[in-house]
Amino acid sequence: MKKTTILFLIILAVSVNHKVMSDDDFPNAIPVENYNTGPGIMLRWFAPGDDGRTFGTAKEYDIRYWNSPLTPENWDKAYQLEGEPKPVAGGTFQAMFVYGLENIESYYFAMKAVDEVDNWSTLSHSVTGKVVEYICGDANGDGEVTLGDGVYLLNFIFKNGPWPQPLGSADANGNGYVEIGDVKHLINYVYTNGPLPMCGN
Question: Please, where in the chain does CATH 2.60.40 lie?
């Protein structure tokens, strides 16, 4: 079974400035915090809105990573991610998966948003995590993919059971979510020689 590497982070946009502002104002800054649930990289955030408010829509994101905490001084040196999603209405949940990083060091992530007249937000604070390895489909962490992983996922989804460690190992159908479709994918794989679990593919 092929091992997959990723790291899980959560990025939360928090702003409660409701005063009337013009298009000369920046979109909300995007504070971030680490939600390190294990291997894999999933960036998650609430869309920041526009003009210092929690509503409206920014024009685009710039998400970057580096091998040390990101600051305004080293931002231009950092690697920019490709394929950032388009911003949606402020307060809406968004996510992005990142793959292909080496599992040899810690990575630091931060982001900015820009509005329709090219006013950039301030830099979010930097979050960090290490890339580690897991077996895709091995939701219960016993080192192999069996029916037990499907049972473990059912318990997690419907009975508030223990979380898969890491969460990404349970995304067997590779759609970016952990849900009943992953259980079906695992059962199909185990019993009918169906497609391999495909976390992140």
Answer: 1-134
